[in-house]
């Protein structure tokens, strides 16, 4: 039943799920490819976890058209994204920017890897320091010899 | 009447679970064997009661008894029989009952197959299982009763959500739950070990088959769900990093780590404390997944706040079980003795690295899934974390993991020879590079990362095969000897190789589709031609059709290659009148491991229709790889080493006959 929420929402949002319409597509393939790449980074504000590239909601279409307008006007990719963010807020970014409030989000993998590695190294050192590999005492050697001979 | 009996059976199941939760524990503390043995029979009785209850609900669905509210809300008399039956778990109440059914099913299995378990351990494990079962039975009875009546009974039902009327979705939840809930056994074993303060290699040998079984089912469930989303949702995606998907992916990642650490514990008695922690963590993530999906918290924090009964109840279960288990861990983990020693470069070392990366990946997915919720709840700031974030972070973590996978099986336990392993993997790595170079050349340059990813997949597959070749001594000894050695290898060696090969296949599929798929969006009128990949499609027009509980418009396409018609594709838009809901049924044709995917859009004013067509190269590798991974799990599960009871029983039987003579 794991996908019911998603499925339900898709149904509510609009069906059939077809995003980019033929009339939106830019004539210049290079520009269109850039538009698609940018669209995949931007969230459809009224959908649940869909990029404007995947969604067929009205608002997503407006944003796709907007992105293409800015690109046609000669904006760089970053400029287009900044422009959309300035109008719709950071909520629109599917990959949040690295800043104070996303510190833990971005820092988590690095932090865990560092902590894990350090813990492992410390544990290995401690294990190495233990007399586990110490040479046998004379008594032990004698005992071992006896066992081996028998 | 029968409905009330089903309801009553559920109440009795709750009562049985309460008995099973306390008396065996009392038996363990007092050393009372009769009380301990009670756990086994209680587990079986509890399973029979819940099974009866579930059968009653299924009966209500099959007979379209609309006096049951749940049936009325989710069924329709004209619905095909198969969907009447699978519709039982196509809704909140029914799916929770299925969850409970699978949980008590696993308890009953432990009680039936666990004859050779130490009796205190068995009693404690079954008691812990019963705590979980009791909590969920209570949840169902108090907040999500599937047997609630509706009087007067309506004449017709509201039908199941049409998107869910699909064979893929019918199999998906039970598989997923078998995986989710299968980890409850590992959890119960871990908690029991903490309560007893004792843990040894025998414990790991008990936990590993359960982990393997749960992991195999979860792999199947996730792959099935992914394929279902691919062909049903209509835009050709197969993984969306949706929170609901992440909820099932996190237990899988943690379960994969558990699978590997339990191996170290079984063979070398090392990593005991870590394995216990992972077992708790894995099931906690399953519970968290249930909470995320069932509480509505994902749609929005506010939706959760408006109808909080169910959400708060599951949250309470979550807090009690996860909090309880971790507190127990904090209190008792120091009682567990640390085990075997190993050098950093060794098979243990490689498996520790595997665990480090997999755990980090799990935590990354978890943070990404919950961060927007927590940030909004704490500061009111709204951010989104979606596919681009996960692809980047998760991808970066997976690269080193995949690169070291083939090394693991080639390193010796305790102290390994890294240079030797690297030397033996030289051929695999070299061929991987050649594959990458060939892809780069064939794609006329293009992105560098994609050929490298494909090369990495080839290296992974060949690396796994290298292990089998080396262990059989192929090329060094005579063919017959090598073959005998190969067939004499433990099944778990093949299981490992298969699972790693499967991973390689999936990787190749993912990279190829992502980098090399082609997509065409166009408005087509009947008779229009369009080129996609190596094929051309001609649109032949729309036709009307009718199914048992829907009407449809089907677009007909003829596929040709080099001017010769090869096949045809139907792609349709359906309307389910009971819910006035349209769906798209994508038209898909398979060519080898690749597929053509056709989806219909809006009808345009000029008589044309918007059509979206994809050429998806090697897409079947994604799920084919998952199938191979599952095969690895099953082969490994059949290893005689894991059938714990068998050898000891046989020996006892031999002794008994010897004594009789």
Task: Describe the structure using short key phrases.
heterodimer; A: 150 residues; mainly alpha; Helicase, Ruva Protein, domain 3; 2 domains; 6 helices; 0% strand; disordered N terminus; B: 661 residues; alpha+beta; Four Helix Bundle (Hemerythrin (Met), subunit A); 5-stranded antiparallel sheet; 4-stranded antiparallel sheet; 22 helices; 9 strands; 66% helix; disordered C terminus; cell membrane (chain B); Cytochrome C biogenesis protein CcmF (chain B); heme binding (chain B)
Write structural notes for this entry.
- Chain A has 150 residues and is mostly helical.
- Chain A folds into two domains: 4-92, Orthogonal Bundle (Helicase, Ruva Protein, domain 3); 100-149.
- Helix content of chain A is 59%, strand content 0%.
- Chain A has six helices and no strands.
- Chain A has helices spanning 4-13, 29-41, 58-72, 77-88, 103-129, 138-149.
- In chain A, α2 (29-41) packs across α3 and α3 (58-72) packs across α4 (77-88).
- Chain A starts with a helix and ends with a helix.
- Chain B is of the alpha+beta class and 661 residues long.
- Among the domains of chain B are: 1-163, Four Helix Bundle (Hemerythrin (Met), subunit A); 425-516 and 621-631, no CATH class; 518-616.
- Chain B is built from 22 helices and nine strands.
- Chain B has a five-stranded antiparallel β-sheet, with no helix packed on it.
- In chain B, a hairpin with a 2-residue loop joins β7 and β8 (594-603).
- Chains A and B meet through α1 and α5 of A and α7, α8, α9, α13 and α14 of B.
């Amino acid at each position: 039943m794991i996908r019911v929420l998603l499925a339900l929402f898709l149904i509510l949002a609009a069906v059939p799920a077809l995003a980019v319409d033929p009339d939106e597509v830019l004539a210049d393939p290079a520009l269109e490819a850039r538009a698609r790449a940018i669209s995949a980074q931007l969230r459809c504000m009224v959908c649940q976890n869909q990029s404007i590239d995947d969604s067929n909601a009205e608002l997503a279409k407006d944003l796709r058209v907007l992105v293409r307008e800015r690109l046609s006007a000669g904006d760089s990719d970053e400029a287009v994204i900044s422009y959309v963010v300035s109008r719709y807020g950071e909520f629109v970014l599917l990959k949040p920017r690295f800043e104070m409030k996303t510190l833990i989000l971005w820092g988590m993998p690095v932090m865990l890897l560092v902590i894990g590695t350090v813990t492992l190294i410390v544990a290995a050192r401690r294990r190495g320091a233990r007399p586990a590999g110490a040479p046998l005492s004379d008594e032990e050697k004698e005992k071992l010899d006896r066992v081996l001979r028998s | 009447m029968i409905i009330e009996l089903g309801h009553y059976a559920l109440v009795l199941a709750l009562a049985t679970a309460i008995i099973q939760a306390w008396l065996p524990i009392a038996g363990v503390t007092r050393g009372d064997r009769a009380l301990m043995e009670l756990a086994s029979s209680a587990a079986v009785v509890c399973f029979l009661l819940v099974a009866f209850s579930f059968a009653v609900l299924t009966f209500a669905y099959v007979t379209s008894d609309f006096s049951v509210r749940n049936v009325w809300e989710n069924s329709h008399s004209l619905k095909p029989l198969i969907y009447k039956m699978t519709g039982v778990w196509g809704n909140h109440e029914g799916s929770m009952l299925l969850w409970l059914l699978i949980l008590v099913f696993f308890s009953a299995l432990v009680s039936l197959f666990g004859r050779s378990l130490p009796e205190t351990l068995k009693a404690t494990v079954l008691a812990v299982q019963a705590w979980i079962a009791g909590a969920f039975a209570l949840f169902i009875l108090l907040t999500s009763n599937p047997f609630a009546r509706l009087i007067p009974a309506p004449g017709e039902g509201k039908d199941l959500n049409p998107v869910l009327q699909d064979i893929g979705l019918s199999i998906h939840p039970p598989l997923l739950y078998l995986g989710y809930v299968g980890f409850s056994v590992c959890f119960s074993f871990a908690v029991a070990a903490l309560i007893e303060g004792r843990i040894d290699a025998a414990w790991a040998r008990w936990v590993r088959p359960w982990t393997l079984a749960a992991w195999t089912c979860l792999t199947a469930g996730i792959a099935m769900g992914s394929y279902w989303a691919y062909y049903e949702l209509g835009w050709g995606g197969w993984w969306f990093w949706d929170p609901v998907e992440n909820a099932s992916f996190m237990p899988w990642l943690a379960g994969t780590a558990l699978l590997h650490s339990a191996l170290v514990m079984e063979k070398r008695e090392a990593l005991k404390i870590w394995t216990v922690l992972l077992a708790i963590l894995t099931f906690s993530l399953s519970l968290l997944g249930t909470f995320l999906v069932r509480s509505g918290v994902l749609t929005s924090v506010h939706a959760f706040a408006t109808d909080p009964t169910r959400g708060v109840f599951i949250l309470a279960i979550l807090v009690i079980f996860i909090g309880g288990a971790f507190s127990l861990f904090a209190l008792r983990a120091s009682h567990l003795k640390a085990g075997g020693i190993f050098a950093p470069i060794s098979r243990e070392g490689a498996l520790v690295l595997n665990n480090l990366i997999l755990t980090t990946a799990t935590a990354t997915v978890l943070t990404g899934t919950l961060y927007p919720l927590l940030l909004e709840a704490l500061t009111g700031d709204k951010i989104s974390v979606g596919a681009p974030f996960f692809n980047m972070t998760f991808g970066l973590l997976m690269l080193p993991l995949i690169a070291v996978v083939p090394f693991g099986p080639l390193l010796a336990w305790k102290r390994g020879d890294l240079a030797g392993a690297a030397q033996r993997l030289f051929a695999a790595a070299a061929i991987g590079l050649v594959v990458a170079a060939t892809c780069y050349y064939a794609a006329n340059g293009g992105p560098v990362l994609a050929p490298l990813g494909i090369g990495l997949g080839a290296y992974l597959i060949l690396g796994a095969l290298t292990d089998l070749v080396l262990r059989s001594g192929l090329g060094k000894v005579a063919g017959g000897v090598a073959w005998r050695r190969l067939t004499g290898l433990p099944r778990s060696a093949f299981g490992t190789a298969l699972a790693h090969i499967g991973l390689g296949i999936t990787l190749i599929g993912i990279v190829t589709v992502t980098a090399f798929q082609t997509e065409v969006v166009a408005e087509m009128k009947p008779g229009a031609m369009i080129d996609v990949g190596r094929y051309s499609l001609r649109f032949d027009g729309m036709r009307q059709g009718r199914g048992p509980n829907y009407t449809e418009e089907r677009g007909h396409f003829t596929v040709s290659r080099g001017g010769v018609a090869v096949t045809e594709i139907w792609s349709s838009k359906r309307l389910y009148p009971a819910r006035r809901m349209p769906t798209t049924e994508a038209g898909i044709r398979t060519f080898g491991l690749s597929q053509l995917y056709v989806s219909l859009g809006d009808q345009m004013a000029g008589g044309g229709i918007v059509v979206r067509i994809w050429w998806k190269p090697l897409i079947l590798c994604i799920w084919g790889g998952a199938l191979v991974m599952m095969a690895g799990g099953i082969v490994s599960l059949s290893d005689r080493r894991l059938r714990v009871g068998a050898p000891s029983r046989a020996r006892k039987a031999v002794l008994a006959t010897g004594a009789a003579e």
